[in-house]
Design the sequence.
């Protein structure tokens, strides 16, 4: 018999011990990976209901709407769930110049060289800043 | 002063309480999101050193090489790390017909409709099976 979690049509998120699922965020137009974040049940519910991305911050232990500080909100164009329902994927329209709090479009701006042993020296890739985080986040 | 984790060039993975980082896996050619998995320090080390994808299974609590049962290995074309170094992204050459243990190319074969409340009915998308998992995994 087929597994209802994998083959069924009822959304049944498998939250981890901290009550979270992983969320992969890509640009709906370019396909670029923008960020990886987490959602608790409330963030997932708000995202589905509103079509705007909400997350749960593991460091701040708080629900947050993407863009609430920066204005760089994300409109969800499509959401998908994976086979075992412990990860979701949202394709978003990223408002403003970037998704990363460091001032870049994507959080993935450093490459890890392969076929290496020992300490690994990262290499910047697509790392130009598209906005000044100090100006965006330190508004009085 | 800039944060060495975010702006530095030393790979310093921030493993969670279970010793894991999240790994996003995309097809290097098409850009398609194939799967989301986890890596512990050993899986990350083996992936970097070998250029082949290794993961840590949270359900089986075991290190595994992608494709060790199915033959559907993944050659890593590029690896990146995110701003706070708790997630990595690998672009892979997927060998064989698919990455998902359910018999599909990608694990993300169901869409979550938006602007809904209450119980959510998923919709199959790109859900055709590209291989028969029973034949691939139940080999004697």
Sequence:
């Amino acid at each position: 018999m087929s597994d209802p979690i994998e083959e069924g049509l009822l959304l049944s998120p498998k939250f981890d011990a901290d009550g979270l699922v992983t969320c992969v965020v890509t640009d709906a137009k370019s396909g670029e990976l923008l960020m990886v974040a987490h959602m608790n049940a409330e963030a997932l519910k708000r995202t589905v209901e509103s079509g705007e991305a909400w997350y749960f911050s593991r460091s701040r232990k708080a629900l947050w709407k993407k863009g609430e500080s920066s204005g760089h909100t994300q409109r969800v164009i499509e959401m998908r769930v994976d086979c075992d329902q412990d990860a979701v994927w949202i394709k978003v329209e990223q408002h403003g110049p970037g998704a990363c709090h460091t001032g870049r479009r994507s959080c993935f701006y450093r490459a890890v060289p392969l076929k290496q042993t020992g300490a690994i020296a990262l290499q910047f890739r697509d790392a130009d800043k598209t906005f000044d985080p100090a100006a965006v986040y330190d508004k009085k």
Q: What stands out?
A: Helices of chain B lie at 4-7, 41-50, 133-137. Strands of chain B lie at 21-27, 33-39, 54-57, 62-65, 74-81, 87-94, 110-111, 123-124. The mean pLDDT of chain B is 96.
